[in-house]
Amino acid sequence: MSSIIKGFSKLTREEKIKKLKQTYELPDNLSDRLARYRHSGQQDLFDDFSENTLSNYFLPFGVAPNFLIDDKMYVVPMVVEESSVVAAASRAASFWATNGGFKTKVVNSLKKGHIWFKWNGPKIFFDPFPKTLENKLTQAVSSITANMEKRGGGIRGMKILPLEEMQTIFQLEVYFETVDSMGANFINSCLEEMKAPLQEFFTTQEDFKQFGDIEIIMAILSNYTTECLVTTQIECPVPALKPFASELSPELFAYRFKTAMDIAWMDTSRAVTHNKGIFNGTDAVVIATGNDFRAAEAAGHAWAAKDGQYRSLSKCEITEKGIFKMELTIPLALGTIGGLTRLHPLAGLAIEMLGNPSATQLMSIAASAGLANNFSAVASLVTTGIQKGHMKLHLINLLNSKGASAKEKEAAVNYFKNRIVSARAVEEFIENFRKQRNEQ
């Protein structure tokens, strides 16, 4: 095809833009529009974060104050474009700060990776795991793990498991402690270095070599971090829920809230949206601190389906003594050193604002932000409905999309104080407001 661009990554930024305009139907003012969002002082740094960088994509860097997590108060940085997320987290944080706060427990902080290989031998040979193989593989990566071990990390175990659905396919599963680093590059480097000694083991050990050599398929970390779990909890007497109950009694509110939570546990369609609400908060913290939100989402959604049905990640209970309890357990492999966590200026600032937490503390903070958003969302659903508060906060976005002036925005905010906000209603307001001004 004549439209294929070759050697694109080797071109300068200006050459890239020129080539794109020659090849595709792009706006004439493309270069000027992209230039508006270039950083005047640190663009070289941002250019190196990714490939073929033309500009920067801005997202709001906001904060939710008053988060009491494990008896420590935090202001939590959140990067998210949805206006209601920070507001919902802030309101929930303030309420729970006066009701005991968020209590967390990091179940574990291990990550894992796999070397997948093909072999014609029996799986019984790996039960128990051959100590000679473990020593061989550990020694092979000793130069890579040395610094990690000084920080308290390193390899924490390994095993070989068959892939039951595909005969002759096995996985070497290796567990790593990466301390305050997310550890993706560290894990992948170790796994790559283990491939050759793993292959050598099968060709030199008498019991194993009778079944032939192994064929290594791939080596890669797993983002399904089931050994890297955090649980966060909130609880209070049912009468204390009155600020969120709207016109309902606290008892009826708690009943409806738990019913909604039970529905999310049992129905997949509801569970997906329910969990999206959790990740509204969790992802905002993960992104703000320069961590991998795609990995966090993938692990969380897989965890939600671990029993064969996709379910809600959070649960609710009302005890016989009238105590309302809510709990979220989620796999979160996060880091506070390495990657973009310190290299990105705002990610580094976010971590400083959190008091330079350890990776496990950051897990607790991100999970608590997720539970805060989850609580606020479900509370709205069973009382006023989700749109009332959401659309009020979305009003400014709608006004900006219509090119509203400062006076028009001020008038619109007053007008919609007690009215339902919708795109059509805002459009009609702007039309009428401008018409009246023109007639004056």
Q: Please tell me how large the radius of gyration is.
A: 27 Å
- Counted by DSSP, the helix tally is 17
Tell me the helix content: 40-55%
Class by alpha and beta content: alpha+beta
Gap between N and C termini: 60 Å
Catalogue the unreliable spans: none
Shape: globular
What does the main sheet amount to? 4 strands, antiparallel
Name the quaternary structure: single chain
What is the number of beta strands?
Answer: 10
The mean pLDDT is: 93
- Biggest sheet strand order reads 3-8-10-9
State which percent range the strand residues make up.
Answer: 15-25%
Compressed to H and E, one letter per element, the order equals: HHHEEHEEHHEEHHEEHHHEEHHHHHH
Protein described:
This protein is α+β, with helices and mostly antiparallel strands. The protein is built from 17 helices and ten strands. The strands form three sheets. The chain has a four-stranded antiparallel sheet. The chain has a four-stranded antiparallel sheet with strand order 5-6-4-7. A hairpin with a 4-residue loop joins strand 9 and strand 10 (323-331). The radius of gyration is 27 Å and the shape is globular.
